Amino acid sequence: MNTFLCLVLSIILAVFLFFKKKYSYWKDRGVKYVEPSFPMGNFPFVRAHFKDFIANLYKYKENSPLLGAYIVTKPVVIAVSLDFIQKVLVSDFSSFHERGMYANEADDPLSAHMFSLDGERWKSIRTKLSPTFTSGKMKHMFPIVVEVADRFNDTLASIVKVETQLDMKDLLGRFTTDVIGTCAFGIECNSLENPESMFRHYGRKVFDDPHLSPFMQMLVIQYPKLGQKLHIKVLSPDVAEFFLDSVGKTIEYRKKNNVCRNDFMDLLIQLKNGSDLENENAKQSEKLSLEEVAAQAFLFFAAGFETSSTTMMYCLYELALNSDIQERGRQEINEVLLKYNGQLTYEAIKEMSYVDQIISEALRKYPPAVFVMRKAVHNYNIPNTKSIIEKGTEIFIPVYCIHHDPEIYPEPEIFDPERFSPEQVNNRHSMSFLSFGDGPRNCIGLRFGRMQSRIGLITLLKNYRFTPGPKTMIPIIFDPEKAVLTPQGKMFLQVETI
């Protein structure tokens, strides 16, 4: 019995000394930090949204460019000064160009997409894909998105005849699924007509039924090499098989039938064949494999349909609560369309500045990604201090907290598109709006995302009026299980045909 007690006490002492040593990391380096708690560090022990974890740290931001914190025992940096954030994302990007995301190309090839890759692999694919999202390419895809928006309008018109209190979260998800399915795969998904279409089913499964729990997601991000050794997959096998099969069949069909649609898949096929998207006369570049093409197509699908649909949903939610803003947006749409004979053209949406301000304000108040993450690729001296961020340390940039900081955006819970008038934007720090990130590793698809959201919102405001209904969630409760900032459950609004 004495031997057993000694063994137990020795284990307890060893655990205590281990955590005591780990939790002295920031103190030993003279960095301001938030006191951790055993055994989760600063991470909440009870279930909470990740934005709440960072918000509990951000409140200690005074007089420091960053804060030290702990996820379990791993030291991480919370960047809180906009000047320091600019260094991380832009001016000192070469020191922080990695994201530190988990990818397992051997067991889970679709996880090795541009968002999760680092180093030369990321740089190579980013360079190849950058010409895909130029203004010229957006003009080619514009008619495809408008065509889907017209079908969306037809579908909604028939639904409103039967019922007027609608789940806009689901309807907008079906709209963006059809847009991305068409542009990324050249496939008519028909999610608007058939909510149980295959693309909608697997798109929902990626976000609503993730293969890994939030704890496992954090585990593989914090310990990626362990995850790879354990052959942990980000995607469930049926999801991976569906997207790989869809890409393979699309490429085979287009090659066999000589199909050219000027969409995202056409551009990926060119890269698969070794073509240069910027210079047709250039010598062949390194070809992308089928798995690499499928991974980028999957990223475009997963990132494009969910973020754009939730952004439009939040726009409609706020417009339903603020009828004056809704009417002003609708007035601008009608005035501009009158100049273009009622036709929604690429040039017309460029003139709808207030609609764009509405979208920007929704992205401020409800940023899809509540944080941006970077990783130090070598030791980095913190400006104006003697302290160092060591190689491999993760830096969390608290997007949601910045967007809700009253020192940056007075009365941040009020929805006010005037915050994004040219005058107010010019008076703010360039890092005060980070819904698409910033610097060389910003969101590559931001032009497409904005275009898709504009077309969808314009189509809806032109034809329908939105108001709160008995089942409208006020205030919004966010789902703590979702990586993207999304409401828990459905988003009902009252919809009336104009």
Automatic annotation (TrEMBL):
The keyword Hydrolase does not apply. Gene3D superfamilies: Cytochrome P450 (1.10.630.10). Heme binds at C443. It is a peripheral membrane protein. GO terms for cellular component: endoplasmic reticulum membrane. CDD domains: CYP6-like. GO terms for molecular function: heme binding; iron ion binding; monooxygenase activity; oxidoreductase activity, acting on paired donors, with incorporation or reduction of molecular oxygen. It is found in: Endoplasmic reticulum membrane; Microsome membrane. Transmembrane segments: none annotated. It holds the Pfam family p450. Keywords: Endoplasmic reticulum, Heme, Iron, Membrane, Metal-binding, Microsome, Monooxygenase, Oxidoreductase. It comes from the Eukaryota. Its cofactor is heme. InterPro entries: Cyt_P450 (IPR001128), Cyt_P450_CS (IPR017972), Cyt_P450_E_grp-II (IPR002402), Cyt_P450_sf (IPR036396), Insect_CytP450_Detox (IPR050476). Belongs to the cytochrome P450 family. This is Cytochrome P450. It comes from Hermetia illucens. The lineage of its organism: Eukaryota, Metazoa, Ecdysozoa, Arthropoda, Hexapoda.
